Amino acid sequence: MSTTQPNVIQPDCDVVVVGAGFAGIYALWQARQRGFSVRGFERGSDVGGTWYWNAYPGARCDVESYNYAYFFDDDIVRDWDWSDACAEQGEIKRYLRFVAERCDVLRDITFDAQVLAARYDEAAGLWTLSTAAGETVVCRYAILAIGALSDPKAPDIEGVDDFAGPAWFTSSWPRDGSVDLTGKRVGVIGTGSSGVQVIPEVAKVAAEVHVFQRTANYVTPVRSGPMDPAVVARLREDPQAVRQAFRETYGGHMPLDMGDERFVELDEAGRQRALDRAWAGKYIDLAFKDAYLPEANAAISDYIRRKMQEVVDDPWTAEHLVPWDHPYGGKRPCMSNVYLQTYNLPHVHLVDLRETPIERILPEGIRTSTQTIPLDVIVYATGFDAISGPVFAIDISGLDGRSMKDAWADGPKNYLGTMVHGFPNLFLPSSALSPSVLANMATLAEQQVDFIFDTIEWLDGQGRPRLHPLPESEEHWRAETLRYAARRPGALTTKSWYSGANIPGKPRIFMVYCGGFKRYNETCYRELEEGFPGYELMAPPRPG
Ligand code: NA7
Questions:
Q1: Residue 532 in 3-state DSSP?
Q2: How far apart are the CA of 379 and the centre of ligand 1, in A?
Q3: 3-state SS record for 52-96
Q4: Residue 10 contacts residue 87 (beta carbons within 8 Å)
Q5: Do residues 194 and 53 lie in contact, with contact meaning Cβ atoms separated by under 8 Å?
Q6: Could you give the CA distance from residue 41 to residue 111 in angstroms, rounded to a whole number?
Q7: Quick check: do 13-151+386-538 and 152-217+337-383 share a fold?
Q8: How many CB atoms lie within 10 A of CB 6?
Q9: Would you list the domain boundaries of the chain?
Q10: For ligand 1, atom 14, which residue shows the shortest CA distance?
Q11: Which residue owns the Cα nearest ligand 1 atom 29?
Q12: Other CB atoms closer than 10 Å to residue 207's CB: what's the count?
């Protein structure tokens, strides 16, 4: 006779991974490598995550391809050829598919399956995840590899639904090539990284382009063209050494170039030379060894502003495209070799919303405080409910039925950027209070997934207890995050999505750990080595 009680839930698998971007694909592979049964759910129809959804013309990565890639497998490093120093969206998506096939994880993934809820059963020590299609799966460990920029921000503009023509979002651009802007009057709202990339492409085919800019951004040159064969050879020689070396850096990658002199030790002429060299070499953000100092940052910011103005012919447009209100890095800076030049085309017009705000969207176009601009199409490049948005898009409830929305009511709290008090055995890679969007996301994905599975193996080695961080660990980690943010020029003084300022009513808290990748990695592994002193280990559930 079976001893299993019929009313006690049993796990369907050890691990569930939600999301099939950089972190999700690697998590599925790690699960299999370590002998866990695993299921994956992905709301898209293919792997790719960010690189699946953001299929707008001009989309590309502005981190160099040789950095923005996996390094866990030597053959993958050696068998994939990047065609460009900074790869475009389609190529990165193909790369992720290539890796998923190589790792044989596609068989584990259910596509077109959006996970809507995750509930913890304390007595059973299990998570139950449910999808929009009504499927449920029960597991011991849940990994929400759902990305930091995957929940598009709803446009907070009156009349959005009134527009008579088509409206497209960069964050969910049709992948079938069906959008044709040829000869159209197009309005683009938003001038973050996506706007900066899509606007030159729109301008190539549209009859008229009106760019609605609320905040001007820094735009600096980006590397392009074939990768240096010597760099490629260096990477392929010993990928594991490269992987380890990335984890020893501040940003989780190795810049190709950086200034070798200190701002504080240079005279005026020396600083100018260093800035000119860095601009030509496309590493202006790292023009000095001490570029992080506020005075060095101010010199870099001024230099970029001057360079930006030089490119644009019309003085009013040039003046208004330059970010005067925040230092370089306060908001996510943009990179492009063609964006500013686009404004020299006679059919491209800048609308400065600080001077003439949008009043509402009409069926025939956009009305600002001074004019109505007739449009055939609107492109929204209006960004994301960053970092916490994707977490809230899933109804998560943990111990005592407490919801994540409740736990994070005054902004994200967690320990080491991955686990939240009250939510045992739930892991959130790429999320809040980790190096995430200020580091190389590919390196971070590997590091966090390694740490998660090292934690899971450790837990299983202990007879499957359950673990979640202590409240005081969360307080400490939040304080650490703020302490390092205070050292970053503009981090706490600039309105940006790093701190939730782009979403009306969202709690303002700087959500990215900027103590550096090396320190982050070491802090994670110190916990593991010391038996997780910053966490509560809960007893294993009693067998049913
Ligand atoms: P971003 O960087 O959040 O940019 C969104 C842009 O849209 C930004 O210029 C916003 O102005 C603007 N925006 C948002 N809402 C409005 C309204 N209501 N009216 C006018 N303008 C608005 O998102 P991206 O997709 O460009 O980039 C996301 C990340 O992807 C990027 O940082 C890289 O990591 C890659 P604001 O600055 O808020 O005044």
A1: coil
A2: 12
A3: HHCCCCCCECCCCCCCCCCCCCHHHHHHCCCCCCCCEHHHHHHHH
A4: no
A5: no
A6: 6
A7: yes
A8: 6
A9: 13-151+386-538, 152-217+337-383, 255-331
A10: 382
A11: 193
A12: 12
CA distance 20 to 110: 10
Task: Spell out the residues 6+ positions from residue 325 whose beta carbon is closer than 8 angstroms to its own.
Answer: 215, 216, 494
β-sheet bridge partners, residue 129: 118, 137
Q: Quick check: 160 pLDDT over 90? A: yes
Architecture of domain 13-151+386-538: 3-Layer(bba) Sandwich (3.50)
Task: Tell me the CA–centroid distance for residue 350 and ligand 1, in Å.
Answer: 16
Tell me the per-residue pLDDT of 236-270, one tens digit each, with 9 for 90 and over: 999 999 999 999 999 999 888 899 999 999 999 99
Would you state the structure tokens that stand for residue 6, as one six-digit string?
């019929």
Q: Ligand 1 centroid to 252 CA: how many Å?
A: 25
Distance from residue 376's CA to the centre of ligand 1 (Å): 22
- Tell me the pLDDT band of 2, cut-offs 50, 70 and 90: very low
**Residue 377 DSSP SS3:** strand
The rounded Å distance from CA 217 to ligand 1 centre is 10
As a whole number of angstroms, the distance between CA 141 and CA 314 comes to 57
d(CA 333, CA 430): 20
Residues in the chain: 544
DSSP H/E element including 529: helix 517-529
**What is the tens place of the pLDDT at every residue in 416-429?**
999 999 999 999 99
Ligand 1, pocket-test mutation among 157, 502, 511, most atoms within 8 A of CB:
502
Please choose from 214, 219, 494 the residue to mutate so as to test ligand 1's pocket, defined by most ligand atoms within 8 A of CB: 214
DSSP 7-24: TS---SEEEEEE--SHHH
Neighbours of 179 (CB within 10 A): 15
- Whole-number Å distance between alpha carbons of 336 and 351: 20
CATH topology of domain 152-217+337-383: FAD/NAD(P)-binding domain (3.50.50)
Atom of ligand 1 nearest to the CA of 214: 39
Percent of the chain with pLDDT over 90: 94
Which two tokens mark 45?
Answer: 């129809």
Q: Which atom of ligand 1 is nearest to the CA of 193?
A: 26
Residue spans of alpha helices (H) in 126-179: none
User: Does the model's pTM come out above 0.85?
Assistant: yes
Atom 38 in ligand 1: which residue has the minimum CA distance?
502
Residue 232 Cα, ligand 1 centroid: separation in angstroms? 34
Could you tell me the two tokens for 487?
Answer: 């050292």
Name every protein residue with a CB atom under 6 angstroms from any ligand 1 atom. Answer: 149, 155-157, 170, 189-195, 212, 214-215, 332, 353, 381-383, 437, 497, 502
